Amino acid sequence: MDNESKSSHSTAGEPGTYRRTIGVLRIAVVVLAAVIVILVIAFAVVVTQLKEELSSQPGDCPSTDNIKLDPPDILPPFHDLTRVEIASIREFMYSEKDLSLVRATDIQTNNSYIYLIELKVPKKDQVLQYLDNGQAQPVREALVLLFRGDKPEPYIQEYTVGPLPNPYYKKDQRDFPFRYRPPTIPELIGVYEKLNRELHESIGNILKESYGGSLVDCEDQCLKFQQLSVMPTTASNQPRTRKVWFSLAPYIEFYSLHPLDFAVLVDMTSTQPKDYHIDALYYAGDRFKSIEELQRAYEFGSVTKTKIPFPTNNKDLYSTLNRRGSLFPSDSKLPPREYEPDGQRYSINGRHIEYMGWQFDLRMSTSFGPQLFDIKYNGKRIVYELSLQEIAVFYSANNPSMRFADYTDSSILIGGGSRGLVAGADCPHHSTFLSADHSFEFSDDAVRNDRAFCIFEHNTGQPIRRHLTSNGENKFYEGMMDIVLTVRTIPTILNYDYIFDFIFHQNGAIEVKSVSTGYILASFRNSAEDDYGFRLKNNIIGNIHHHMFNFKVDMDINGRPNRFETIEIVPKSVDNTLWSSKLDAKYEQTMMVREQQKTEKAAVVDFDFTRPQYYTFYNNQVKSPNGVPKAYRLLIHGMSKQ
What we know:
Blueprint: H1 2-55, E1 67-68, H2 83-95, E2 112-120, H3 124-133, E3 141-148, E4 155-162, E5 169-177, H4 185-211, E6 223-230, H5 233-236, E7 243-250, E8 262-267, E9 277-283, E10 286-288, H6 291-300, E11 346-349, E12 352-355, E13 358-365, E14 369-377, E15 380-395, H7 400-403, E16 406-408, E17 432-438, E18 447-469, E19 476-489, E20 492-493, E21 496-504, E22 510-518, E23 523-524, E24 533-537, E25 540-543, E26 545-555, E27 563-575, E28 586-596, H8 600-603, E29 613-618, E30 632-634
Parallel strand pairs: 1-11
Antiparallel strand pairs: 2-3, 3-4, 4-5, 6-7, 7-8, 8-9, 9-10, 11-12, 12-13, 13-14, 14-15, 15-16, 15-26, 17-18, 18-19, 19-21, 20-21, 21-22, 23-25, 24-25, 27-28, 27-29, 29-30
Helix pairs in contact: 4-6
């Protein structure tokens, strides 16, 4: 019985055990499935977060559908000449047999050649008829500058050439004196060859003893004529001449910080380089009429001899850009960096730019540099033209090459010097870079300057407005950062680099900034130079000089009929007897004096630093709901007192 009972009990219990096992397995499967689902969800969340983080990292390449840098099919009035247009203009000019033009590879001072080609901006009336009234677009034309050295009496010749892109006419001929031409490659090559040969053969020993270098066969101790200064005919009292001072310097980085006390005045009036001749020399503070006079003075000891060793050209040389001294920060941490989490908030089509209610056209004049046209804010034109017209620098010194260093930089083509902007140094990493095409004397092909402009949005770190109220029950804060769009270009003009920024604020203000950097142009120091600057190194003085930037600002505030009004803040003594127990009480405060300037002569600004004024421009027919003209103020920070 017992055995049977045990046997029966054992057999009867197997189905229950099986069911319990299945139940446990089901629970395990459900739990495992739940864990897998949770892991999948977690993985998806992590992947999503990583994607979001990666998409917001600096250096990401967002969609560039709004950035189209190629020229549009229909070129707007302000668009610079394209490479195709430049090529067609050159071929047309070469086909004009009356001009006797030679190709760029064959140019000499005494033949006829193309010096410059650039866009001729149409007349404003024609452009506005097209932009505002839907009339036909003005014909695209180019300004072509020729040097007619082939003529018995050489001259500069200017033509208007069109219509583009297939020109068939040249018109509006204008002629200018040949001596007014800027320095050109053929004549500079000619004068350098002549100076090097003639001076090495005659006073090479003096240059070697004085400065430790040579003009020819010099290996790593070369002397070069670097700086040039045109002698003003008003200063020399020699009209109709073309004379230039050339200063000597060691051929190392960077020449303008290693001036020497040797210069020559060369008469370059002739169109034949073989006829160039030395008119005067400057050595050790003295003037000499000829090479022979300097030789005699040096041999007989009647001149103070200069003894300057040739600089040791290594990484520790003060004029190089090699890192020297103590580095900072001591730990190599990267600086802050801006980025655009959602890509550019501005758009570019060719050279037409739009941003936060702003729109304008941009170009690069080969001669004069950056130029902006048709600047609108919220659909209303504010400025028709905002353009750089000239950079001028005036030096003061005792030595002649620096005394007469009065430069107008358009003579060596400001726009042609704008190129090679570097991300992370010249412009933020997230900038958009634009190129510029030019036509120069030395090439029949258009020359492309890559990265001539950079465009970027920037957080200035300055609130454009803010307010915090914490008193009483109405506690609130509101604020907005001043985030701007900047158009930047940096032309290099010999030793100087000029940073030009056109800044568009979201409150409708336009800001233009000019900053000079690069290297100073120094002089050889002697006691006679001490009134004109400070001593920087043993033989170097930094001369006083004056930079001037000339901008054209053609404002059309709510239309073309604008008024110019000055507002002066003056002291005012007012009667205060109503608020005082004193019988003749006065109160001192300020008041506005508004004056409309009705003539060109009256509108000339003679800036008085003791009585500053507000310069306002407005259309008297366009007013606010309160009857006040909607005006723009011209605020000038860069005035200098003479």
